[in-house]
Write a structure and sequence with these properties.
heterodimer; A: 111 residues; mainly beta; six-stranded mixed sheet; four-stranded antiparallel sheet; 12 strands; globular; B: 114 residues; seven-stranded mixed sheet; 11 strands; 0% helix
Chain lengths: 111, 114
């Protein structure tokens, strides 16, 4: 079936460090790919997306590129801040109602 | 920004009891969803709902589960006879368009079945 596998956490970083969270997918066909983020006490919210191969999604300094050859959608940020502390979820979706999520990766950024 | 509201934030119940989890979606949204996440596992799709009926449901969503939109604002998930394995974080979500990829999620209800 269609699924995503993302890097297990937790991940702890210092401010201004480089962040990478790996995500790979298994799918029949070419899904749209997403990163959602959940800040403490809040609901999941869409961070960025890419709908076809080689697309790059970006938002709030985060980037992820849809790589068909490696079936990956790794999330990166060059210089993290304390406010980036959150749980990050990779997800995929075809033209139907449901998103298929990963287990989430908890990121803690220390000042 | 408008938000999806879920109540309660925590619910503790005894095995075999009925629970109702409540959600208030964003007011102009028409598509509603329930997801859940068992501790340490993936966020799983349960059900989608549109025009007062279920559009799609997963294998998890068996006869013990039901959803309802009792009025113009609330969207509820009922579990008739809870089991230990129903313990999870339950997320409600809504969107304004069919197959919209931008879902707005609530902050979740943590259900603990003892």
């Amino acid at each position: 079936g269609n699924s995503v596998t993302q890097m297990e956490g937790p991940v702890t970083l210092s401010e201004e460090a480089f962040l990478t969270i790996n995500c790979t997918y298994t799918a029949t066909g070419y899904p749209s790919l997403f990163w959602y983020v959940q800040y403490p006490g809040e609901g999941l919210q869409l961070l960025l997306k890419a709908t076809k191969a080689d697309d790059k999604g970006s938002n709030k300094g985060f980037e992820a590129t849809y790589r068909k050859e490696t079936t990956s959608f790794h999330l990166e940020k060059g210089s993290v801040q304390v406010s980036d502390s959150a749980v990050y979820f990779c997800a995929l979706k075809f033209n139907d109602y449901k998103l298929s999520f990963g287990a989430g990766t908890t990121v803690t950024v220390r000042a | 920004e408008p938000e999806v509201t879920q109540t309660p934030s925590h619910q503790v119940t005894q095995m075999g009891q009925e629970v109702i989890l409540r959600c208030v979606p964003i007011s102009n949204h028409l598509y509603f969803y329930w997801y859940r996440q068992i501790l340490g596992q993936k966020v799983e799709f349960l059900v989608s709902f549109y025009n007062n009926e279920i559009s799609e449901k997963s294998e998890i969503f068996d006869d013990q589960f039901s959803v309802e939109r009792p009025d113009g604002s609330n969207f509820t998930l009922k579990i008739r006879s809870t089991k230990l394995e129903d313990s999870a974080m339950y997320f409600c979500a809504s969107s304004d368009r069919e197959a919209n990829e931008k879902l707005f999620f609530g902050s979740g209800t943590q259900l603990s079945v003892l």
